[in-house]
């Protein structure tokens, strides 16, 4: 049961400057009045009606809160408090100021596989803890892997954004068409039952990109990307992997497996020779290998550009919606009458996944 306070957040926290904004709210710096500790406040607008797509569903917020409240781990974003008013929910979460892991790596002159592995270990430990609680993230991607502080000698990984996360109940099946195209597993595309193994596919894609600066299944369109995923159409091109160890490729191959039951678990990943060498020879081979930094920087620049483009597009669309919805006297009636605000109940799964995934890529 999610623990949500019905009190005024400003009675407990001083609200500071805006740190970021999204479709349905904003993130602001906050300071706890009792202790002086600094946190971040996620101010989320709630949907006003069932038919509206403006704002988040209270049920989805409750699910995210319940999940975060039971995931107390050093590599997972901490949740401190939750407040609810009539129009919004405020999540008081850990202030993570180090930015995205991929941005941090892109700023470096070079990076060895040994250094990359230290980051992968932390990601795997966080994911492993999550999975031990029967919780799957379902949206693991570079944007959701952050650093608590990038200015320390050994930066600390934080996994964020549990908006798509689910607690998986044994004996029950869960399906979803949500996610970002290049990181989702074949079972998502095929609308098959999902499991914690779905996250491990995403780990394989992230590792592939980290080492080569290339996305294994990326096509010229979302449809082509999804087709590549289902047909397992990927390879280790020498041009991009000439600095990569054989053990690293083996690690990726054991995650990019179509059958979810055959993929390595997070615990098995931590014992793989690439992560934990069994012999001196394996350790030596790993230490001589490095990341393709030139290509990685190109990939990260393209990724950031696409994120900026999508944000501008989303803001423009939201402005158009708001203008459309001001043409009548009653706001609730306007929101219900806006064509863009209606859920297409007749859409088939194949076209639905293209629409939803393209909007979140």
TrEMBL record:
Gene3D superfamilies: Phosphorylase Kinase, domain 1 (3.30.200.20), Transferase(Phosphotransferase) domain 1 (1.10.510.10). GO terms for biological process: intracellular signal transduction; positive regulation of apoptotic process. InterPro entries: Kinase-like_dom_sf, Prot_kinase_dom, Protein_kinase_ATP_BS, Ser/Thr_kinase_AS. It holds the Pfam family Pkinase. Coiled coil: none annotated. One of its GO terms (cellular component) is cytoplasm. ATP binds at residue 42. The keyword Hydrolase does not apply. The keyword Transferase applies. SUPFAM superfamilies: Protein kinase-like (PK-like). One of its GO terms (molecular function) is protein serine/threonine kinase activity. Residues 332-361 are annotated as: Disordered. Residues 13-275 form the Protein kinase domain. Keywords: ATP-binding, Kinase, Nucleotide-binding, Serine/threonine-protein kinase, Transferase. PROSITE patterns: PROTEIN_KINASE_ATP (PS00107), PROTEIN_KINASE_DOM (PS50011), PROTEIN_KINASE_ST (PS00108). Belongs to the protein kinase superfamily. This is Death-associated protein kinase 2-like. It comes from Chanos chanos. The lineage of its organism: Eukaryota, Metazoa, Chordata, Craniata, Vertebrata.
């Amino acid at each position: 049961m999610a623990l949500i306070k019905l009190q005024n957040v400003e009675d407990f926290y001083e609200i500071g400057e805006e740190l970021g904004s999204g479709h349905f709210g904003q993130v602001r710096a906050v300071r706890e009045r009792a202790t002086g500790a600094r946190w971040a406040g996620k101010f989320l607008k709630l949907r006003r009606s069932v038919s509206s797509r403006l704002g988040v569903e209270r049920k989805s917020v409750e699910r995210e809160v319940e999940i975060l409240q039971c995931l107390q781990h050093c590599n997972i974003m901490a949740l401190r408090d939750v407040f609810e008013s009539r129009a919004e929910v405020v999540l008081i979460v850990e202030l993570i100021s180090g930015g995205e892991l991929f941005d941090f790596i892109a700023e470096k002159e070079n990076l060895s596989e040994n250094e990359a592995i230290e980051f992968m270990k932390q990601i795997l430990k966080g994911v492993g803890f999550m999975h031990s609680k029967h919780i799957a993230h379902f949206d693991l991607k570079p944007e959701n892997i952050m650093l608590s502080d990038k200015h320390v000698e050994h930066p600390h990984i934080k996994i964020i954004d549990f908006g798509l996360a689910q607690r998986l109940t044994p004996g029950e099946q869960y399906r979803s068409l949500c996610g970002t195209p290049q990181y989702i597993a074949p079972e998502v595309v095929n609308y098959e039952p999902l499991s914690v193994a779905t996250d491990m596919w995403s780990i394989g894609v992230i590792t592939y990109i980290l080492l080569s600066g290339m996305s294994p299944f990326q096509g010229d369109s979302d449809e082509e990307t999804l087709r590549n995923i289902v047909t397992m159409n990927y390879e280790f091109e020498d041009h991009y992997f000439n600095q990569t160890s054989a053990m690293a490729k083996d690690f990726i191959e054991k995650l990019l497996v179509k059958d979810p039951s055959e993929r390595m678990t997070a615990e098995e990943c931590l014992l793989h020779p690439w992560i934990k060498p069994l012999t001196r020879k394996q350790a030596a081979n790993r230490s001589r290998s490095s990341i393709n930094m030139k290509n990685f920087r190109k990939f990260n620049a393209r990724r950031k550009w696409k994120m900026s483009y999508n944000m501008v597009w989303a803001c423009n669309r939201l402005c158009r919606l708001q203008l459309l919805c001001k043409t009548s006297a009653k706001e609730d009636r306007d929101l219900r009458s806006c064509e863009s605000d209606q859920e297409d109940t007749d859409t088939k799964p194949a076209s639905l996944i293209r629409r939803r995934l393209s909007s979140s890529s």
